[in-house]
Amino acid sequence: MAELNLILLGPPGAGKGTQAERITEDFNLPYIATGNILRAAVSEGTELGIKAKSFMDAGALVPDELIIAVILERLQAADAQDGFLLDGFPRTVPQAEALGTQLAGLERHLSAVLLIDVTDEEVVRRLSGRRVSAKTGRVYHVEFDPPKNEGVCDIDGSRLIQRDDDKPETILNRLAVYHEQTEPLVGFYTELGLLRRFDGARPPVEVHDHIRAQIATLRLEDRI
Ligand code: ADP
Ligand code: AMP
What we know:
Elements lengths: L3 E6 L6 H12 L3 E3 H11 L2 H12 L5 H11 L8 E5 L5 H13 L6 E6 L2 H10 E4 L5 E3 L18 E2 L6 H15 L1 H8 L3 E5 L4 H20 L1
Parallel strand pairs: 1-3, 1-4, 2-3, 4-8
Antiparallel strand pairs: 5-6, 5-7
The chain binds adenosine-5'-diphosphate (ADP) and adenosine monophosphate.
């Protein structure tokens, strides 16, 4: 069976991480989320983290040259040879081009780009209520997906925090950055015939069902 190389695309707060948890389980794919990689680098105080922090705090993108090298190297790791799920990368056309060049050089190709579509209004609602466990990475929402006990993770009882960039003024900036720098990828991947669009306003189980059905169809087509 062909390898499954997937990209999750969509504005911040669309539900990419929420779906990724399910998709990686369904298909046993390594989950490569640039935001998580960068936040880990910041908290570990690595050179990458030190360089990335001010951009992230402002809701801006870190420069292409910082992130491209990290992700292209990550994709060479043994666990990513039979497929991967990318979340948060590519976020600019140069990043998409760099990814395409690397994959082509290795005679690999993308299976699909899954666009999770939600309105700006919904993004603001979701991001302002998002809470995460820094320890387990599990994502909650105070209203739409609350933990069993307020303020603590269901998995291990660790404390839930609000991400620094989920504060109201940064959210609006991140949305503007998405429309300006990342949305052009919708056209980019449509032209390549790779884009699949999902209505992210649906509840998480429904979005997941639609994505799974779409991937099943792709696999079927692949085998024919
Ligand atoms: P992203 O990874 O795209 O930034 P997340 O998966 O972290 O988005 O989701 C953002 C917030 O919205 C979280 O608080 C999450 O619990 C909530 N959420 C995710 N998907 C849905 C959905 N389909 N309906 C309502 N809330 C959702
Ligand atoms: P995320 O967790 O995907 O919302 O990402 C959090 C922040 O990390 C973003 O607001 C950016 O500052 C930075 N970031 C994540 N992925 C990228 C990327 N592919 N290119 C540039 N910056 C990124």
